[in-house]
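Supplementary Note 3. Input sequence used for the single-chain structure prediction.
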Amino acid sequence: MSLPWGILFDMDGTLTDTEKLWFQAETEVLGELGRPWRAGDEMDIIGLNLIDAATHLATMLEIDIEPAELGWMLTERVAAIGREQGMPWRPGAYEILELVARLGIPSALVTASHMAFAQLALEQAPAGTLEVAVTGDQTLIGKPDPEPYLMGIERLGVPAERTLAFEDSVHGLTSALAAGCVTVGVPLKVDISGVDGAILIDSLADVDEAFLRAVMP
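The predicted structure, written as discrete structure tokens, is reproduced below.
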């Protein structure tokens, strides 16, 4: 049983519990735009890229604003909140990155968030990890399309079938599977049990070297 040649990580909800930061940003920005935002409203946009999420919000809440402008406002606000509060790592996330670095496995961040926010996680990650970053402002099509993961795989320079991806959303799992990655789901807020082909675990804290070897074909 060999180790993966490359590992790709989603950020929001997988490595970091930043959904609460996004909810705060969405609540503040949409409140300033005169539209209510309630707990649970975020469920439909988890895993979407920023423009698709902003388009959904503008349509759902009937806000007369361009999705790109709303996306920029949300990114600016969540980045400010992240700088103030720090990036909250999910249980086992920092440790798995340390493990990946120790084993010498190249790793990438594949996130729907824009670089302005993702940069905070890149700066706080252990040295020698997340050498590659694919962010929502670098892709033409976001998750669930395979493009973000295909781009990450290409930048890592490894075969898709030798890569391992970690995700927390249906959109993210669908994207990684379609790109050909061995795909592991780590649920946070949404039910991901119905995604065929995904390996489900309870926590990143359950991942060790033996797990990384066991899941690879």
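The chain has two domains: 6-16+87-215, 18-85. The CA atoms of residues 69 and 185 lie 32 Å apart.
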